[in-house]
Amino acid sequence: MNTLPEILPIQPFTGPIEDVVTLPGSKSLTNRALILASFGQQPVKLTGALFSDDTRLMAEALRQLGCRVESDETALTLQVSDQDKLFRSDQPVELFVGLAGTAARFLTARCASAPRGVYRLDGVEQMRHRPMAGLINALRELGADVRCTGQEGFFPLEIHARGLRGGSIDLDASASSQLLSALLMVAPVAAGPTSIQIVGSVRWTFVEMTRRLMAEFGSDVAPAIDGRFAIEPHVYTPPSEHPIEPDATAASYWQALMLLVGGSLRLPHLRPPGQGLQGDAAFAEVVQRVWTRPSGQLLEENFKEISDTFLTLAAIAPLLDGPTKITGIAHTRHQETDRVAGMATELRRLGQEVVEEEDSLTITPQPLKVDQTIETYGDHRFAMSFGILGCHNLRGDGTPWLSIHHPDVCAKTFPHFFELLESVRTKSSAA
Hints:
By secondary structure, the chain is of the alpha/beta class. The chain contains 12 helices and 20 strands.
């Protein structure tokens, strides 16, 4: 991959798309599958896996914990083996999770479930401000010794592992569904039954992703009844090979691009809404509603269950025919950055009328300001979403009018995004 400049001007498209884009594997599924593979007794090969900052951090952490993870980036495979060597170190094990929320939450639970050992987990400064308290407290109630060595309820952590005994707990996972997913994945290896009562709201699409993926790895947990999961102890039996679905969240950028420039773009192997494990596939239905909205009418969309894609719609809202209201996004204020505030700031930088509330943004299109540079706040989704907006041929002559600051943040989930975008643009211009 070529090194991207600190400030990247986006070259607009001057013709419709006629291309095929192979999406990277899902980050959410790759990191869940790596954790679930670690519970097995035999080698597990993941095909179509994502290779990005977040998945490399997870794979390296599992290596530090003792098992073998073999990577083949050309073949897009990861193979986990030697699981019997996990958690054997007599010395404290240091694990670095960067800004990867999945790695942070899942590894915390995985280490707490270990029979022995001391594990120290930390990340970048931003990771030290992401919510962990619900998971930490729940693990303690299940018998874990989890110590916060900085501020209580946040990274860094030190875990003195002694396994989990099971028990009955209440969990507020409104800050992040990953807190619940982490507990669900380790609950089957607890010594006794585990009951998890959900308190407050939760993003069920990601929880269902976890539960259904667990079933594919031999741990069939029943759906929650009245917000309560009941999990009996049992042994995971992972498959020898597991395919990772293409990333439905990444697909949203290309679906938005087709809205802006027209033409035809195929996304091979992407499963339609309801047919795969990823709730973010429902963004395709949002696109259809954008297409069919009466001219000038308010478009209101609740993104609670697919909030990773809300930035995609928000970024292109200045080009839509009428105002757009995006709701269900309060919890995104605690992700890589405050995504609600950041999106409002960047849209206003571009001259848009934005009403920001705790759980929503309302965007009324205004003439776009040119020669602006978008801040990305260390957040990959800002870079990719506004990268798509910049593809609009605003001046009509194919010259750039929008730039992205620190486009390399895409390495978190989609390392080749801007190179691929330029390849598609070049083909569309030559057509």
